[in-house]
Amino acid sequence: MNRAAATITGYSPEDLSTRDAWFTRLYGFRAASVRADYDAARDAGFPAPLRSTATRKDGAIRFLELVGHRLADHEVWLLHDVTERIALEERMHAIVTTATDAFITIDPQGTVESVNPAVAQMFGYAASEVVGQNVRMLMPEPYRSQHDAYLARYRDTREARIIGTSRDLAAQHKDGRTFPIELSVSELDQGFTLVIRDLTNRKTLERSQAVARTEERVRLSRDLHDELGGELTGIALLVASLLKKLEEDGSPYAERAGAIAARMDVAHQRVREIAHGLLPVDTGPDGLANALIAMANDCTATHGTCHCRVFSHPPIRLDDPTIASHLFHIAREATTNALRHAAPSIITISVAKDEHHVRLEIVDNGTGFPKEPSKGGRGLATMHERARELGGQLSVQPRPEGGTTVTCEIPLPPVTTASA
Q: Helix 321-341 crosses helix 373-389 at what angle (to 10 degrees)?
């Protein structure tokens, strides 16, 4: 026994000079069972450290860890005081156990090794239903099909796309419904730790705010077009009547009245433009399709070297004006970016809808998305923000044959049926 061991236990080497003294003084009434554990570890070739609580000479309870080694005909035991480490592990365990976020550890192949209680609350599975299964069971398509390939690519290339970052994705409950999550992935020595936060409440709030903003824009647009526009029309008629009278009388003020009439026409046109800018998509179910077609026609007419076209088979009808407005703005921004940076000759906008999602895709055959972050600009960030506000996903990917594909998929709100 060296001085360090004496410092850890509080006993002198003479106090622990024999094997029996060592176990009796440190482990008291548990000496026999602890001794048996240590004998078993020795017989097994010291496969792992042994931990147990021990009592220092001053009465303090400590966690001691012994690591055994065999040197020729002798045994050497390395003694460590791991009390603080055990306390930290227990605190971390308590945090993980009581956390509302889901903690999942997986091996390099994606097999779940452990979960915390929040997984059952979040996904509806008991721990026994998840542990031992591939973690992709908690993912909807297309993430489920892509997951194994992602892990294989990371093992081969060490190229991380999610590891070390947080990303908003979708997860799948046991009952089949999907819900938004924030996923953070950290690499362990042998595998990964996934921390999953349910974003349902936050996304619901963001969607409510987006709907409220859309409703306010609708109100402002209608007020500008109907009330202010109507008032300006009335004033313009009065000015036109006055101008006619002044011209008939040969008044020198006729020229000034004509200038006022011209300014009234400009103001009226400006009000109509602002009203349309606030609400470029009509609130009817055909609003998105009509707005995209009008934008594509204008794009083709304005940029003679680029043909912009819209595909929607069958023609999409969308009853949610908030989704329609956001998708239109995303399509317009993506089209503008392509025309500004990629010099395409063809831009194709397609819209599709199923029972649960609406999908917008903008494909161009230009020179590709700019590599310089500054050229992505605020427009790209705004497109992502619009998609996230409604719980959707947006991706910008290069095309193998050249050009860029911008894809946005937004979940449709559940259809509610009025009770009788």
A: 170
Please compute the mean of the pLDDT values over residues 264-292 and round it to a whole number: 88
Positive or negative: CA dihedral 117, 119, 125, 131: negative
How many angstroms separate the CA atoms of 178 and 167, rounded?
16
Asked whether the predicted pLDDT for residue 161 surpasses 70, the reply is no
- 68 is written with which tokens? 């055994």
Question: Tokens in use for 10?
Answer: 């509080």
- Does domain 99-198 fall under CATH 3.30.450.20? My reply is yes
Q: Are 345 and 306 in contact (CB under 8 A)?
A: yes
User: Who's near 49: CB < 8 A, 6+ residues apart?
Assistant: 65, 66, 67, 80
β-strands 74-81, 61-71 pairing:
antiparallel
Amino acid making up residue 125: Y
Q: What are phi and psi of 410, to 5 degrees?
A: -125, 130
Domain 3-86, architecture per CATH = 2-Layer Sandwich (3.30)
**pTM: predicted TM-score of the whole model, two decimal places:** 0.58
Q: Which two tokens stand for residue 139?
A: 């993912």
pLDDT digits (tens, 9 = 90+) for 165-192: 778 888 899 998 888 888 888 887 788 8
Model pLDDT for residues 387-408, shown as the tens digit of each residue:
888 888 888 888 888 899 999 9
Fold of 287-411: Heat Shock Protein 90 (3.30.565)
What is the domain partition of the chain in residue ranges?
A: 3-86, 99-198, 203-278, 287-411
Element containing residue 144 per DSSP (H, E): helix 143-157
User: What does the pLDDT average to over 92-102?
Assistant: 78
